[in-house]
Amino acid sequence: MLLLFLLFSLVVSPIWAAEPPKLNGQWAGPLKVPGGELKLILTIVPLSNGSYYAALDAPQQRISRMPATATVKGLDVTVSIEQAGSRFVGKILKNGTTLQGTWSQPGLKAPLTLSRLEAPKPAAVAGKARLTPPYREEAVSFYNKEAQIRLAGTLTTPAGPGPFPAVVLLSDSGPHDRDVTEQDYRLFGSLADHLTRRGIAVLRFDDRGVGQSQGSHFNTTTADVVSDAQAALVFLRTRRLLDTRYLGLLGHGEGANVALMAAAEPTPAAPAFVVALAPYGVPGRDIIRRQQLEIMRLIGSNPAQVKAALNLNQEMIRIIRQTPNDNQARGKVAALLRFHNTDLDPHMARARAVQLTSPWSRYFLDFDPLRTLSAVKCPILLLGGTDDLQVATSQNLPPLKKGLKNSAARALRLPGVNHWFQPPMKAWPVVNGDPQPVFSPKALDEIREWVFRKTERPQPAPTTGEQPKKQLVKGNSSGGGGKVSR
To answer: Residue 71: which of 21, 7, 9, 12 has the closest Cα?
Structure first.
């Protein structure tokens, strides 16, 4: 039994007389399904506007960060996925350390207890103490003049005199910290460490309203984040150890499209190159429809259920696109949801309607990732995984490659890699008997080698007192030989 969740957010309205338990962290537990157990993990992140973002994971099915909608009334908590007909109804117990209740979906109703997980320790990677890295690591902040906010992050710079090529990392949709921390996996933390050890400086930063960054995630659209990327590139130009000719953007999911949009704008902050991981190549509403099909397929829905769910989803999208007034749209969407599910709590229906009419959601429904691609001139690397259930490579990479007609674009599908750029679980390292998620080594190789082919990097410092004849080499990933720059 597989679970896949569409685009939802968590809106919490606590009514405790005293201070309620803080719902901030991760809860995990086993769901009994025919033939065994399925481990579910719920992540809850507080947003700066007082609401919450939530996501559900099913690691055994390699499903990660699938958002969910929930409401809280006193000590009662409900998590609902109405399109899939699934719901968790339970109680918040032991000062928020336990969520206990019942999970139901078509053909299955079972008790479910979720226990709070310990927060991951930054100093622990794959069960080992984190040693001082062989590169410079600095907490930094930079100012986005357009949005008038300050964003905070980490800049890692290779050892040596430089100058070094550099990339700015841009995260997928949803609120993420600078490492894109997901349980024991740090997508951006792993990527930054790998690239910096091999001669590429990396800037990664907290999303708006997350960690030490200012702003509001809830009110941010895909287009808004372009100015964050541009501000990051402007900041990197002030760093003396970096080669200002080779400052690029590396985005994941929505961040990949942000990078492509930034590359299409003729500004001094335009990137010299772009690496796009799992980018969207079709309008947002088509992405949602594909994800809806995956949901229904994975939970074993019959053709009639699939058709009903798709029709409901399409009708909600039609209402939102044709009703610019948020209050009117929310009323219509909430009424439609309750018409199709009479058991749906009015507050839950309203929470879903609010999420669907947020600035991000409205923009995403009409977002056309191909609109500005013809203006992109810099080299582009498009990477996707064949096991990506959220952004299918067969649907998204071909139109992007075709649209980048004025750019030297390379598109590559990586077998067995999922949306979070993890290889098949059988390839994960095992620590203390448990598989540890890792960034795909194949993807790391492709990214690193491609960046080196498009940039210049310093040669290694001589170890025998012999001085190199030239400081820089181009198109050489190993640092020795290659074409010497003029």
So the answer is: 12
Cα 80 to Cα 346: distance, rounded to the nearest angstrom: 12
In tens, the pLDDT along 20-31 reads: 566 777 888 888
What CA–CA distance (Å, rounded) separates 228 from 405? 26
Tokens found for residue 374: 């013809």
Least confident of 130-139, 375-384, 447-456: 130-139
Q: How many CB atoms lie within 10 A of CB 17?
A: 6
- Segment holding 361, helix H or strand E: helix 359-366
H-only helix segments in 279-342: 284-298, 303-322, 326-340
Judge if the upstream peptide bond of residue 163 is cis by omega within 30 degrees of 0. yes
pLDDT in tens, 122-132: 444 444 455 78
Dihedral of alpha carbons 281, 181, 192, 434, sign: negative
Whose tokens are 């541009």? That residue is 230
For residue 71, what is the enclosing H or E element? strand 69-73
* 201 against 8, higher pLDDT: 201
| Beta carbons of 215 and 142 less than 8 angstroms apart | no
Rg (CA), the chain: 23
Task: Name residues whose C-beta falls within 8 Å of residue 127's C-beta, 6 or more positions apart in sequence.
Answer: 431, 432, 436
**Beta strand 128-129 with 380-385: parallel, antiparallel or unpaired?**
unpaired
pLDDT digits (tens, 9 = 90+) for 60-111: 655 556 667 667 777 887 777 654 557 788 888 888 889 899 887 766 788 9
> What is the token pair recorded at 240?
């003396």
